[in-house]
Specification:
3 domains, alpha+beta, 31% strand, Arc Repressor Mutant, subunit A, disordered C terminus
Length: 298
C-alpha cells in the first residue's frame, strides 16, 4: 500500500476525517497517520481546504481554455494567475502550452474574459470547451438551494478556505461560538452543498504525482466511458463538454508508466473514437477560494 496516496485519497473524500477514522481506514496507528499528515501539510505536498460550490457563487459557466504562446509561458501564465476567474493555470506539454480553468456567471462574461485572454501579449491563439456536466470532481459539490448565510457562516467559510482542518475550537474562538455550535454550522454548510472540504495535492514533474489532461471524442456508446470516468481510480476530474471534445478528464498517477496504463484503459473503451492528451508540467495556480457574494437565498 502507498501510505501517502491512500491518506490523500481518504482526505479527498472527507477533508475533516478524524485521525482515528483515517488510521482505521489505512490500518495504521494514529501516531503514524498524525505524523505523516503534519509533514505533508507542512511541506505543502497537500492542502486541505474548503471550496464553495460554483452554483452558489453564481458561477454558472465553467470552461477549459487551451492556449498556444509565442515564446515562453511565464508572461502569459502570470496574467492568468492574476485573473480572479481562473481557478487552475498549468504549463503543459502537448498541442498547447498553457491550460486554464475559468468560472464565470454567464456566457457573455465568458466571451469578455476570452477576449481579455486573447489580448495578453504572447498569446497566439486559444481553444475553449465548456463543461456541460461535471461527472467527477472533488471541488464541485451539489448545492441544493434554499439556504441563507449569515456573517458567522461567511467567516467560517473564509477560514475553512484557508485551512479546511482547523479545529472546531479554533473556529469557535474566531467567531465567538462554542465548538459544538460551530460543528453544527459547518455540517449544515456541507450537507446543503454550499461547501466541500477536500485535499488538493501538489502535482507536476517536481512532485510525487504526475498529472495528464485528456480530451475525448465519443461515439454512440458513451455510457461505458462515462462510467469509467466516474469510477476510475486514477481519474481526478471529469466532465462532459461542448466544443472540440465530448468529454475531458484529468488523470493523476505516481509514475509515467501508471499514467500510460490509465490512458490505455480509456483508449480501449469502445465508446472512445479519438483521444488527445497533454501532460501537466507545472501547476502554477490551483486556488478554489472565493470571496462570498452578499447574502442570498435560492
Amino acid at each position: 500500500m502507498d501510505f501517502d496516496a491512500e491518506l490523500i485519497r481518504a482526505l479527498q473524500e472527507d477533508g475533516r476525517a478524524s485521525i482515528l477514522s483515517l488510521a482505521e481506514r489505512l490500518g495504521q496507528s494514529r501516531a503514524a497517520v498524525a505524523a505523516r499528515l503534519r509533514t505533508m501539510l507542512a511541506d505543502r505536498t497537500v492542502r486541505v481546504v474548503a471550496a464553495v460550490d460554483p452554483v452558489f457563487l453564481g458561477q454558472l459557466v465553467l470552461a477549459h481554455v487551451s492556449i498556444r504562446t509565442d515564446g515562453t509561458v511565464e508572461h502569459v501564465a502570470e496574467h492568468l494567475r492574476d485573473m480572479s476567474e481562473t481557478v487552475l493555470v498549468s504549463a503543459v506539454g502537448g498541442a498547447h502550452d498553457v491550460v486554464t480553468e475559468v468560472r464565470v456567471g454567464s456566457m457573455s462574461e465568458l466571451h469578455d474574459l476570452l477576449a481579455l485572454i486573447r489580448a495578453i501579449d504572447g498569446v497566439l491563439d486559444i481553444s475553449t470547451i465548456i463543461y456541460s456536466t461535471v461527472i467527477k470532481g472533488f471541488f464541485v459539490s451539489e448545492y441544493h438551494g434554499g439556504i441563507t448565510l449569515d456573517t458567522i457562516d461567511e467567516a467560517l467559510i473564509e477560514r475553512l478556505q484557508a485551512d479546511g482542518r482547523e479545529s472546531f475550537r479554533a473556529l469557535g474562538d474566531a467567531v465567538r461560538l462554542s465548538p459544538s455550535a460551530v460543528a453544527t454550522r459547518v455540517q449544515r454548510l456541507i450537507d446543503a452543498g454550499v461547501i466541500k472540504i477536500s485535499a488538493v495535492e501538489a502535482r507536476g514533474l517536481a512532485h510525487r504525482q504526475l498529472s495528464m489532461g485528456v480530451g475525448m471524442t465519443l461515439g454512440d456508446d458513451d455510457e461505458a466511458v462515462i462510467d469509467e470516468l466516474r469510477r476510475g481510480r486514477g481519474v481526478d476530474f471529469a466532465a462532459r463538454t461542448l466544443g472540440r471534445f465530448d468529454a475531458v478528464a484529468t488523470l493523476v498517477e505516481p509514475s509515467a508508466g501508471a499514467l500510460y496504463a490509465s490512458l490505455e484503459r480509456l483508449r480501449a473503451l469502445p465508446g472512445v473514437t479519438r483521444i488527445e492528451a497533454w501532460l501537466h508540467l507545472a501547476v502554477l495556480k490551483e486556488d478554489y477560494a472565493r470571496t462570498l457574494r452578499p447574502l442570498r437565498t435560492d
